[in-house]
Amino acid sequence: MERLLSSVSRPRLASIRCIPQLTVLARTTHKSFNGSSDTYIESMYEQWSKDPQSVHKSWDLYFCNQNQQKTSTPDLFLCSPGFSRYDKVINSSENQFPVSNRIQTDGSRERKIFNSKLVDDHVAVASLIRSFQVRGHKLAKLDPLEISTIDLDSERPTDLSYKFYRFTEADLDRTFFLPPGTYIGGEENQLPLREIIRRLENIYCQTVAVEYMHINSHEKCNWIRQRFEDPSKKVLEIQEIERAARRLIHASKFEEFLKKKWTTEKRFGLEGCEVLIPAMKMVIDTVASTGVDTVIMGMPHRGRLNVLSNVTKKALDELLRLFNDKIATDGEPETGDVKYHLGTYIERLYSATNSKIKFILLANPSHLEAVNPVVQGRTRAEQFYRNDKQGDKVMSILLHGDAAFAGQGVVFETFHLTHLPDYTTHGTVHIICNNQIGFTTDPRVARSSPYCTDVARVVNAPIFHVNADDVDSVLYVAKVAAEWRCKFKTDVVIDLVGYRRHGHNEADEPMFTQPHMYGKIKEQTPVLKKWIDKLLKSNIIKQEWYEAEVTKYEKFIDTAWTNSKNSAVVKIKSWIDAPWKGFFNKHGPFPYPKTGISEDKVKNIGIKAYEPPKDLNLHRGLKRIFDNRIKMLEERQIDWALAESIAIGSILDSGHHVRLSGQDVERGTFSHRHHVLHDQEKDLVTYIPLNNLHQTQGNYTICNSSLSEFAVLGFELGYSTSNPYSLVIWEAQFGDFANTAQCIIDQFISSGQAKWVRQSGIVLLLPHGYEGQGPEHSSARLERFLQMSAEDEDHVPEIKNSVYNDLSMYQLDQTNWIIANVTTPANFFHILRRQTALPFRKPLIIMSPKSLLRLPECRSSFDEIIDGTSFKLIYPEDGVASTNPDQVKKLIFCSGKTYYDLINERTGEKLDSQIAIVRIEQLCPFPFDSIRMELEKYKNAKVCFAQEEHKNMGSYSFCKPRLASVLREMNDKRANEINYAGRDAAAATATGLKSIDKSEKKKYMHEAMEI
Predict the structure, then answer these.
(1) Cross-referenced Pfam families, in alphabetical order (predicted)?
(2) Quick count: other Cβ atoms within 10 Å of Cβ 491?
(3) Which of 178, 425, 470, 539 is 20 to 30 A (C-alpha) from 396?
């Protein structure tokens, strides 16, 4: 490229390099060329010699120049008539220069010789225009307070000045033809340099800053250029302006009312960025006009009450009732949440488009961006169930704070789901309420990137920064962003640069830490007054109209306030963001579900799960595995992988949708699943046997995820809340990897129903077990999940006023989630099927195995999964000890994989008749009644709890007090004599040395066998 540009003046070389025609020629003109640059140029020259129009115009210009130099006419430029724009330049009255002669070569082509400086100047103008398109945003006036440049990169671009290109003031009145990569001329194709610069500054350096040149698409860049550069495009209709004015009145007067009534109450108001409401409504207006009828939203707490009232149109009296400090609920939920965390679900006629639309605002905690993937999962599910394959009907809007958008890693994780086939939602409109501060932290010490939005560049999203006090520009940007989403179905970001009129909350004192900023804010005229004054001055609206609208809204909100005082009871179910119509209409009593299936169905599903098509080139190793599983079926046995396949297949067979997602789930981390088969000779040719059971079955989506836990688990949670009849499973690669998704587990899964009446039947498969693989591959942190269980360890439950006549069903209904550490394929089969058979939905946490996947003893027979069978809460002792319980000296309770180690140790020590071992399969809710039966049966035996985990981990600390509670209820003195057998307390979950692992295991096995 240096040789290619050797004839161009050096001061302009850097700017010319940024002209795409000269940097991508190899791709655009000779795609098949693979040789050196010298050979390439020779090849292109040969092609040009035969037909100048067969190459790019830039090549034509270059070779003309080379020929001119060879003829020793340094001030003349030989050019083909194919470069038509410069033909016009030659004859332009403003740019007269000598034409030496015209050369006829074949009678059909004419070349012209002209001044090379003129061409150089036109190239420089093209470079100047491009510089504004690339870096003009760095000079934009975005801060309403006029104290910040927003862009933390203090370097100002020098290439936005005409002097950088060696133009002088005298050149400003010269006229130049506009290059094809701009629309600033409208219908004109040439402008004076002064006017070119003026238009570029007005477009790129005022109250709107556009970042789009990072997008790797000529079509998309041109689309954005046209909407911001073409003078005829930036026009809003009078109706749109009036509508926006009305919405800004509502947003502003809503905040004023709350401030007047509850001056110091935390409400996280929108003052300083009230324009968010008309901006959101403009987005919704635009997408609704194209057919979108469902908008799913997520947002932080700031501005939520305003969005609830003025975007979703939540009943205002219900909203204001939440400010009553003597409020009561109608019985649900257990705890509830603060008003600025709640969500809603509203279906209504949307007046702007006269069409029915559904608004869903998801509830979420103060963990800010944590709701992002949940919204995306919910959106994807709604699109799936409606067969909305391109997002034409269902879309998402995400609101953000500037500090959180830049600082929270889940933002990046969620963006990385944008284009993944099984996770895309076909474009999200992101709106940032940029307060230019995070709590009390200045952006200059809060982020390293120039803009808070830079993370969005990773998915080539266009970014529109806009001064939130310039309402006209905000509205136009919102409209363009919505049009982008509808056309290109990819993400787009609107950065509303405003301020926060109060501190972090209304009782906070911001002058402690931001005295200069808040000195300016105190003097700042509210945006409503600024814009209304402008509209009145322009005669777009009348004073009478404005006053009437204010009076009308103030009357409306006063009426709602009066109505809110008529009742001190909040109907919590009106705040549900995921109502499942018809699901809870059944009446009890509800028996414990039988989840077995017919033997014929077991065999049929089992065979089809491992029956690849004949034209698929299956891996030889898989063929052997599949043959072994077919053989197992013939022997009426199932292992773990077969149990899972049959369970999922049977749910699909009933017409339910199943989604299994996570890292490497298609094959399975431990190479046991193989639900997606890959042709060994054809790339990207796959086959999913479980999607080929029969024509009326449910859809099975099994997809490897990105290497993310936080975003992917949040996505699957959101997906699970859309439809109660589906089974949604997330599998961690190793159980302890779930700790990077702990926010989703803590804030959404374990407590979602208690806070937001949001039920979910999501299943978490967390590989757990000590096989000497070190601290990162052993424990799924079972103890953490158990600690978050809403169950009183000192209270043995009884059925009270319930539709259940079965205690275990009553407990399942009362619990916040289900935690199990199952030990047999049959029980794994049943617990998966039970998830869709229960009359309610609860999250299910399963400590799934590793070594048990192939342990010969870990097999189940058909008799344990056929009709009439169900999930077992515990497995009682079924060996010799059970035949003579009075002679048993020790009763060991355990859970999970350690059972098989205990059994082998007991046999080796010849203690089969003296020690009984009971497996607790479901830890939460704790099976009090089943445990009591075992304690009563072995009344003379010492009680011990054995586990492979360390003493301060695992299920020991959860089970011991519950065993004691049962014994106390039995008036049994053993309540204070429960022994422990397991590893000592430790800081890390496991040792990294196999020798120590073996010695620890040997020690606790010896303790367990002591009588």
Answers:
(1) 2-oxogl_dehyd_N (PF16078), E1_dh (PF00676), OxoGdeHyase_C (PF16870), Transket_pyr (PF02779)
(2) 27
(3) 470
Say how many C-beta atoms besides its own lie within 10 A of residue 560's C-beta. Answer: 18
Cα distances (angstroms) measured from residue 97 to each of 66, 91, 93 = 20, 9, 9
Q: Contact 152/97 with Cβ under 8 angstroms? A: no
Q: What is the pLDDT of residues 904-924, one digit of tens each?
A: 999 999 999 999 999 999 999
**Torsion sign over Cα 805, 806, 810, 813:** negative
Q: How many residues does the chain have?
A: 1011
User: What does the block give as tokens for 1?
Assistant: 């490229």
Domains in the chain with CATH codes = 1-141+157-203 (no CATH), 238-575 (3.40.50.970), 599-768+821-864 (3.40.50.12470), 874-1009 (3.40.50.11610)
pLDDT class of 151 with cuts at 50, 70, 90: very high
Strand order in the sheet with 428-434: 208-211, 463-467, 492-497, 428-434, 394-401, 294-298, 355-361, 344-350
Which pLDDT tens digit goes with each residue over 636-656?
999 999 999 999 999 999 999
Q: For 416-449, how does the pLDDT look when each residue is reduced to its tens digit (9 = 90+)?
A: 999 999 999 999 999 999 999 998 999 999 999 9
User: Are 394 and 294 within 8 A, CB to CB?
Assistant: yes
Q: What does residue 608 show for φ and ψ, rounded to 5 degrees? A: -70, -30
**Better-predicted residue by pLDDT, 757 or 382:** 382
How is residue 919 written in tokens? Answer: 């497996």
Assess contact for 119 and 86: CB atoms under 8 A: yes
User: Residue type at 433?
Assistant: C
Q: Report which of 142, 119, 136, 117 is spatially closest to residue 182, judged by C-alpha positions.
A: 136
Residue 830 DSSP symbol:
H
Would you say 832 and 651 are in contact if contact means Cβ atoms under 8 Å apart?
Answer: yes
CB burial string 98-136: b at 16+ within 10 A, e below: eeeeeeeeeeeeebbbbbbebbbbbbbbbbbbbbbbbbb
CA–centroid distance for 668 within its chain: 23
Distance in angstroms (rounded) separating the CA atoms of residues 800 and 807: 10
Contacts of 824 (CB under 8 A, 6+ apart): 858, 860, 864, 875
Q: From residue 995, how far is each of 503, 778, 908, 999 by CA, in Å? A: 58, 15, 21, 6
Maximum CA extent, the chain: 120
Say how far apart CA 874 and CA 917 lie, in whole Å: 11
Compute the distance between CA of residue 608 and CA of residue 645 in angstroms, rounded to an integer: 10
